[in-house]
Amino acid sequence: MPDASALSGPTGFVIIAPDLRCNNNCLYCYDKDKPQAIEDLPSLDEIVTRTLAVAVDSGLGRVGISGGEPTLRPDLPELASRLRQGGLGVSVLTNGRALRDRSWLEALVAAGVDHFHVPVHADHAGLHDAVTRVSGSFRETQEGLANILALREHVHLDLTLVHVIHAHNCNGLESMARFLLPYRPVYVLFSYCVIQAGSYEKYLDLMTPYAAVLPGLLAACDFLLQNGQAVYADNIPPCLLRGREHLCLDFQKANTLNIVGLKDFNLSESVEDAAMFQPLNAHERSYAQVCTQCAIKAFCGGLYQSYLAVTDSPEVIPYTAAEISQRLAARKCTS
Ligand code: SF4
Description:
Layout: E1 12-16, H1 44-58, E2 62-65, H2 76-85, E3 89-93, H3 102-110, E4 113-119, H4 125-132, H5 137-152, E5 158-165, H6 173-180, E6 187-192, H7 210-226, E7 231-234, H8 249-255, E8 258-262, E9 285-286, E10 303-304, H9 305-310, H10 321-334
Bound molecules: iron/sulfur cluster.
């Protein structure tokens, strides 16, 4: 079995999705459109062996166990423990509902999980539950987060919070920032909703122009930064965050945040291996025509094809070489 114990850093994730089942049914979730061979799940041995092999190949020292909802797997503590023993840091990307059971949370932490990544869809139950389409999910996620906070008093436990932005919640971002701040996560991630190209027509009502999102997003980020809270924006190209590129996870992804994926793990027997690797979801991304003029195109993840498909003019403004030179020179002067 590959040994990942020599790998050092948490500066990247091998994201695995051993099971696409979920107890939420989020409006925007594209996993539910995938052909799922649920009864044909990979064995624990296969998941561990292949995950460690990908970690060794990619040099990444951390795995993010995603889904679907990974806490639906009763063997999640064993999976976490074996990946930890294989030398990886272990993160769990969960809706947090199962963590309202303190003993289940403690079992995961005892197995080696030291980071939870939890989506929060709104600052109140009505909208959150409307997005997940599960009544009571807001309360259960809040109870799970409260348990994480309580346990964090005693053990090292990282928490990151993600808020997926779409047409139904894009007007409340500053209020959302106020709601998330008391959790003091490692960072807050505002993630513009990804509509996969293959199914975007079904989700058009979720899409909203970047221009409609940006003022509220920047105000929310300012509020968090002013309160000492790290925050990033995801799936928004750097040129739309001009002057605030430090917020732009897409930019950082291209530079430092390595993510390789086994997202379609449970289809592993039926698809080419290459199709399981989704750095930057590259197969879903593309560039606007004007991007060919952009001086930083090589460092930009581009835009989702779904966004380009429904937007006549995608609002992006290329960087010129002169602009980049001026900004680098200005930075040198101030450093
Ligand atoms: S490549 Fe295109 S989307 Fe990316 S920063 Fe440049 S203009 Fe913007």
